[in-house]
Design a protein that fits this description.
By secondary structure, the protein is of the alpha+beta class. The protein contains 18 helices and 38 strands. Strand 33 and strand 34 form a beta hairpin. It is flat. The termini are far apart.
Length: 730
């Protein structure tokens, strides 16, 4: 459907006049404003608008448009082509509009305004972002101050493919014209008479990427994610390291043990020993063979996966086969992959876009070895069946440009290498190791990348239950997730980078908090010091001067003065009852890492500083006033172990007056808060669910009012008859 060249354009100005694009095409002019059916290609566009219509118009924001617009159809296209090429992640909102104005009442238009926005909770984009993607594809840069280009044709194919024909006026600069007439005339000369674009679609969209790298901080579950879809029967796994090379990844001739016939020379002839019985357990009868070291081509991870994937493809199996590469950036990828790099370009079929010539030793292995493509000799031997060989021999490579290449015989005899469409190559990469062997941009472009974020309250992927791992230090337990949240922020602040942060699975629990548990849920001091602190002091902070808490502690210098000094790693040994470890944890407590159980030792802030005293809850010493309520809630949970978190919260809220609205709340309620005091809480575990108890005052505005409010709370607890005895509040 041809459109006026000044309908949709970017970076064109007319000094002292408007140069704004209308973003719409009129399809119903004339007195009756009926649809002009003679417009070439219009019916295909209308069919596409109906087919791709958005059911819920509230998902689309068009509020920036004219109030005189009546939107008859709002459609979302997720297959968008520019000059014949489908652009990844490009989506567009297209609308059918009826105009209600005095001059153009009832006029119909097809509109693609940049202000249109879409958001359904999972997918969100704007047409402005989409136009920027188009400009990037054309090489024209920013749509507000980059090169000049326009759209001259809009069409829809197969009811779901939106096609734009774009013309570049000046790739590098915006253009200025004296009048709009001169601009239109010049641009019209740039429009080709016919658009003969070669249609290039994106590779077949599957639930899984053909080549994918999971990357992120150590302990974010990268390998676990791959393990959920791979096993010994559908994958080959390898790990890259600094000494990895092409031979170790693909294969090479190596000495190996093999049973060979015993032979000798007699009368100038080679003669072979005759085995009387192949059963070696039969005494006195030799099998006629012996084990010898022979040189043989030994396939490694790549060739093993390559052969198995082709074998399964030829057998008609639909399930993918995986080559898994752990720690891909710890090896020199350019050296390891070598000429296999070319195979990573995949086409619409899912196989390599281009085949490469195989080295003779690889070709001979594939052609002749039973672990390659040789004919299966017996039911028990390796190799391919004749039917599988016939399927591979008939394989035709269909290139994206629609050319065909009958390459099956070359694959079968090993002279050509081509990745089959069912072969997935998945890898993991720790961002903390990314400087070991930098991966060049050409290699990166051939992979999809999926970032694994750090989760501080993850869910067990098998049971859908929150893990809630704990950290046990000095007889107190802390939330492992909260520790990570605090320490990762410090890592980012000190190193000005997220690369060295730790994921939830960086350390694994090695003990149980309760004997009744079936799995470990607590990280011990030994693991914490020898793995977590070792990593922090010897890897993360080794090149940085630590000058603030939690990495410093107070010591006496030679003159007996108290000075702040950074911890060194050796300060944490011996681990048992180590004062430096206790000081380090105290620093973290000040930063919000509150103990989950045991003695509560919480500092106070602000006006509560003058209320320091000695308290106890059911005999448990509590140093500070603002730790009393949290300890009281813990004792309540112990007294009523069968109550759910919701029931506990309801019971405490029933105390009424002594409590502020945020005294006790669920995790969801705490996360929804936006006030500055949302983090001034104590986290408490209640049957696997976290509760949050405030450390603020409790609703009394008198001088020293928080103490009186605490007294009111104690009296209310007594009225309820709860088995909680609080001392120190008179």
């Amino acid at each position: 459907m041809k459109v006026d060249v000044t309908t949709i354009f970017f970076n064109s100005v007319i000094p002292d006049a408007t140069a704004t694009a209308p973003w719409c095409v009129s399809i119903g002019q004339g007195k009756e404003k009926k649809i002009n059916a003679s417009i070439d290609g219009l019916q295909d566009v209308l069919d596409g608008l109906i087919y791709k219509a958005v059911r819920d118009h509230d998902l689309v924001d068009l509020s920036a448009g004219s109030k005189n617009n009546e939107y008859l159809l709002i459609s979302k296209f997720d297959k968008v082509f520019v000059n014949g090429s489908q652009i990844n992640n490009l989506q567009m909102i297209v609308t059918l509009v009826r105009e209600h104005t005095k001059s153009q009442e009832g006029r119909l238009r097809i509109s693609l305004p940049p202000y249109a926005k879409y958001d359904d909770g999972e997918t969100s984009f704007s047409n402005e972002q989409s136009y920027q993607l188009i400009s990037d594809f054309l090489g024209c840069g920013n749509i507000f101050n980059g090169g000049c280009w326009f759209i001259d044709d809009i069409s829809v194919l197969d009811q779901d493919e939106l096609h734009f024909s774009c013309v570049i006026v000046n790739q590098n600069e915006r253009m200025s014209y004296k009048t709009s007439q001169l601009r239109s005339a010049e641009w019209q000369q740039l429009v080709p008479e016919e658009h003969n674009y070669v249609r290039v679609t994106l590779p077949i969209v599957t639930d899984e990427s053909l080549q994918l790298i999971y990357y992120g901080a150590p302990g974010t579950g990268k390998s676990f994610t791959i393990d959920r879809v791979t096993n010994e029967n559908n994958s080959v796994r390898t790990t890259f390291h600094p000494d990895s090379d092409y031979a170790g990844f693909v294969g090479a001739y190596k000495p190996t043990m093999q049973s060979v016939d015993i032979h000798y020379i007699s009368d100038g002839e080679v003669k072979y020993a005759k085995g009387g019985n192949n059963d070696k357990t039969t005494k006195g009868i030799h099998p006629g063979k012996e084990r010898k070291i022979v040189y043989k081509y030994v396939p490694q991870a790549f060739l093993k996966a390559y052969v198995e994937a082709w074998k399964r493809y030829a057998a008609g199996e639909d399930n993918p086969y995986y080559l898994v590469i752990e720690e891909i950036n710890r090896g020199n990828c350019a050296q390891i992959f070598g000429d296999l790099f070319q195979l990573l370009d995949r086409n619409n079929m899912g196989c390599s876009s281009y085949a490469i010539s195989a080295d003779e030793d690889i070709a001979q292995f594939l052609r002749e070895d039973e672990k390659g493509f040789s004919l299966k000799k017996t039911e028990d031997s390796e190799g391919l069946t004749q039917e599988q060989r016939d399927v591979i021999a008939a394989f035709v490579l269909k290139k994206d440009g629609e050319e065909e290449e009958h390459i099956g015989d070359a694959i079968l005899n090993g002279s050509k290498l081509l990745l089959p469409p069912n072969l997935r190559i998945w890898a993991t990469m720790n961002t903390s190791d990314q400087s070991l062997f930098p991966i060049d941009s050409a290699f990166k472009r051939r992979w999809n990348w999926e970032y694994m974020p750090i989760e501080y309250d993850p869910v067990d992927k098998k049971t859908d239950e929150h893990l809630s791992w704990k950290l046990e230090i000095g007889g107190k337990t802390y939330s492992w997730g909260k520790f990570l949240e605090i320490i990762n922020k410090e890592i980012e602040d000190v190193t000005v980078s997220e690369d060295k942060q730790m994921g939830y699975f960086f350390a694994k629990p090695d003990k149980k908090s309760k004997e009744v548990l079936t799995k470990n849920d607590t990280i011990s001091e030994q693991v914490f010091v020898n793995k977590v602190l070792f990593y922090l002091w010897t890897d993360v902070f080794k090149d940085y001067d630590l000058t603030k808490k939690p990495f410093i502690h107070e010591v006496k210098d030679n003159d007996g003065k108290h000075v702040n000094k950074p911890f060194s790693f050796r300060n944490f040994f011996p681990i048992d009852k180590n004062t430096c470890l206790a000081d380090f944890m105290s620093n973290l407590v000040e930063m919000g890492l509150n103990p989950l159980d045991g003695n509560v030792d919480i500092d106070t802030t602000g006006e509560n500083n003058n209320t320091e005293g000695n308290f106890s809850v059911n005999g448990i010493p509590v140093r500070w006033q603002n730790g009393v309520p949290a300890e009281a809630v813990r004792e309540y949970i112990k007294a009523f172990p069968d109550k759910s978190a919701t029931e506990v919260i309801q019971d405490w809220r029933s105390l009424g007056g002594p409590l502020v609205s945020h005294f006790i709340e669920t995790k969801a309620e705490n996360e929804a808060r936006t006030d500055k005091d949302k983090t001034y809480v104590v986290s408490i575990d209640c049957n696997g669910e976290p509760l949050f108890v405030s450390k603020q005052g409790w609703g009394d505005n008198r001088p020293n009012g928080s103490y009186y409010a605490l007294l009111n709370m104690v009296n209310a607890i007594k009225t309820k008859g709860w088995p909680i005895e609080i001392k120190g509040v008179e």
